[in-house]
Design brief:
This protein is of the alpha+beta class. It has seven helices and five strands. The chain has one domain: Alpha-Beta Plaits (2-Layer Sandwich), CATH 3.30.70.
Length: 169
């Protein structure tokens, strides 16, 4: 090794040159609240229980989503529809209790694929953070999409890009 190589000067200058070149590259960091990163079209976020155009729940409590879930994150209890509840539920049987434990969920989408009534889908919304574990168990009230007749703006916002796909098909 020569005297210059033993002082590591070429290696130091090479490292400084590489560091200097990174100044001119595009930064991968995004300032989150001001800018939002575009997601992949196959992004799977929070679960949503769907309604039909009249606002009735699509879920018939068949339990296929709970059976398909490899993490066993979905629990449900079925109930029979009573007289006068035709405007709330499409079928005679409905989910009286429907819960998803988001701490167990692996966001695989198998529940969405297993549902024959298109009652559940994974939206383009992040799972929010919290300090208590019980806040991550979402009940039916938290999972239901807003009523399309009473709250049309909130309904379209909750559908997200899914609304655009349904109008194209």
């Amino acid at each position: 090794m020569s005297f210059v190589e033993r002082m590591y000067l070429p290696a130091i200058f090479k490292g400084m040159f590489i560091t200097f070149m990174h100044i001119f590259k595009k930064k991968p960091t995004i300032n989150y609240p001001e800018k939002k990163r575009p997601f992949s079209p196959v992004f799977r976020g929070l679960h949503v229980l769907n309604r039909d155009a009249e606002g009735r729940e699509n879920c018939t409590a068949c339990g296929l989503c709970a059976v398909a879930c490899p993490a066993e994150a979905i629990t449900m209890e079925a109930a029979e529809r009573k007289a006068g509840e035709e405007n709330l539920y499409r079928e005679e049987k409905y989910a009286a209790k429907y819960e998803i434990n988001m701490l167990r969920c692996i966001f695989c989408g198998l529940c969405e694929e297993a549902c024959p009534k298109d009652a559940i889908y994974l939206s383009e919304t992040f799972a929010p953070s919290d300090y208590q574990r019980k806040q991550f168990i979402y009940s039916k009230d938290e999972l239901l999409i807003p009523h399309p007749v009473n709250e049309p703006e909130a309904y379209k916002k909750a559908l997200g890009n899914r609304a655009k796909k349904e109008t194209v098909n």
